[in-house]
Design brief:
This protein is of the alpha/beta class. The protein has a single domain, classed as TIM Barrel (Alpha-Beta Barrel), CATH 3.20.20.70. Helices cover 34% and strands 15% of the residues. It is built from 12 helices and 12 strands. The strands form 3 sheets. An 8-stranded parallel barrel has the order 3-4-5-8-9-10-11-12, surrounded by 5 helices. A two-stranded antiparallel ribbon has the order 1-2. Strands 6-7 form a two-stranded parallel ribbon. α2 runs parallel beside α3 and α6 runs parallel beside α7. Bound molecules: flavin mononucleotide (FMN).
């Protein structure tokens, strides 16, 4: 697909409409997808992280979802350079990020993250902490490199997410996104491949959703009723790109309904290519099905404006520019409400401004060297 001119006249009109998620009005339909950058030594987002996000807000991104940021639990992370969402200095850094994004006219939510069994013991920032997950099973199926979570662990992690959400509201963020995607902790519970529990948190899809649903309810309780709670989920896992949580709309509904019931205000359905139909017999993508099944606003994502999906980016490959006519058609049909953009926005802080003003010929291809700096 190449960039075509008709998009230019339609893009501003379709993408510039505001949209409401609970108490938040997002000024347009463009979302910055969460992208781990590892530029926050000691877990503290500094001046460069502030200007990185503020630059994109100033250029028209309606809602920024920050890179994944660790909740305050010793086993949450694996890097000292990923920002943390706990600790005085770390939260002070985040408060400045939110203030700068607001000053630039944008809105922003932190993506709250616990990596579960992806962690290896010895990893920073808390080297002695064990890897924990629903059943002590890693994404590749191996056992023995961590342990199954106890009741105490479940409560501690739920508490850490709730505390982080309360902190987000206190320091001026516009909502939170809970990272339930890509094979990290919450997804390890959702996915039968990593959840072999025989207690109330394992078994069928509803039982596997129980941990996330309790966590959402605790987060909901910790923040104001109109403070948006977004839940990101995916079929694919970081070490298993073909994995699926649900083979049918009915199975998907079994997972999403309890989450919506627990207080999720919007879902962020992570796919690698937004144009792929999710189930046989319908053109709807995963976000489309999510919206249809839950009635909640849905964010789509995956290769917007680019060919070549994110997996190729993880292998160090670039991608060329692709048109967005089909995306605009889907937005116009209300298949989904918002559109998250990852690599194209990582590459080019001006991406939203260019698209909103129809300057398609100025869009840049994605080049993997963009990962090296926070420009
Ligand atoms: C460098 C990089 C880091 C990422 N980090 C995260 C992350 O922290 N949390 C998350 O949910 N997704 C993460 N993703 C996935 C993106 O949010 C997005 O879903 C993916 O890149 C597909 O969108 P795109 O094709 O527009 O790049 C990351 C992607 C990239 C390229």
């Amino acid at each position: 697909m190449t960039v075509t001119e008709p998009s230019a006249s339609r893009a501003a009109e379709i993408l510039s409409r505001p949209v409401t998620i609970n108490g938040l009005t997002v000024p347009n339909r463009i979302v910055m997808a969460p992208m781990t950058r590892k530029f926050s030594p000691g877990g503290v987002p500094g001046e460069d992280v502030r200007s990185y996000y503020a630059r994109r807000a100033a250029a028209g991104v309606g809602l920024i979802v920050t890179e994944g940021t660790y909740v305050g639990h010793e086993s949450a992370g694996e890097s000292d350079d990923v920002p943390r969402f706990h600790g005085e200095e770390q939260l002070a850094g985040w408060a400045r990020v939110a203030a700068d994004v607001h000053a630039a006219g944008g809105t922003i939510v932190p993506q709250l993250w616990h990596i579960g069994m992806v962690r290896k013991q010895g990893d920073p920032p808390f080297a002695d902490a064990p890897a924990i997950g629903p059943s002590g099973i890693r994404l590749d199926g191996t056992e023995g490199a961590g342990r199954a979570m106890t009741r105490t662990d479940l409560d501690a992690v739920i508490g850490a997410f709730a505390e982080a959400a309360a902190a987000a509201e206190r320091i001026g963020f516009d909502g939170v996104e809970l990272h339930g995607a890509h094979g990290y902790l919450l997804d390890q519970f959702l996915w039968a491949g990593t959840n072999r529990r025989t207690d109330a948190y394992g078994g069928d899809a509803v039982a596997r959703t129980k941990f996330s649903a309790e966590l959402v309810a605790a987060v909901r309780e910790a923040v104001s009723p109109d403070f948006p709670v977004i839940f990101r989920y995916s079929q694919w896992k970081s070490e298993n790109y073909d994995a699926r949580l649900a083979e049918t709309p009915q199975e998907l509904e079994a997972i999403l309904a309890p989450l919506a019931e627990a207080g999720v205000d919007a879902f962020h359905a992570s796919t690698r290519r937004y144009w792929s139909p999710e189930f046989d017999g319908s053109d709807l993508n995963l976000a489309g099905w999510t919206r249809k099944l839950t009635g909640r606003p849905a964010i789509t994502v995956g290769s917007v404006g680019l060919d070549g999906d994110v997996i190729r980016a993880f292998m160090g490959e670039g991608a060329s520019v692709q048109g967005i006519d089909d995306l605009l058609d889907r937005l116009e049909r209300d298949e989904f409400d918002l559109v998250a953009v990852g690599r194209a926005l990582l590459q080019d802080p001006q991406w939203a401004a260019k698209v909103l003003s129809g300057r398609f010929s100025e869009l840049l291809p994605y080049d993997a060297t963009a990962l090296r700096t926070l420009s």
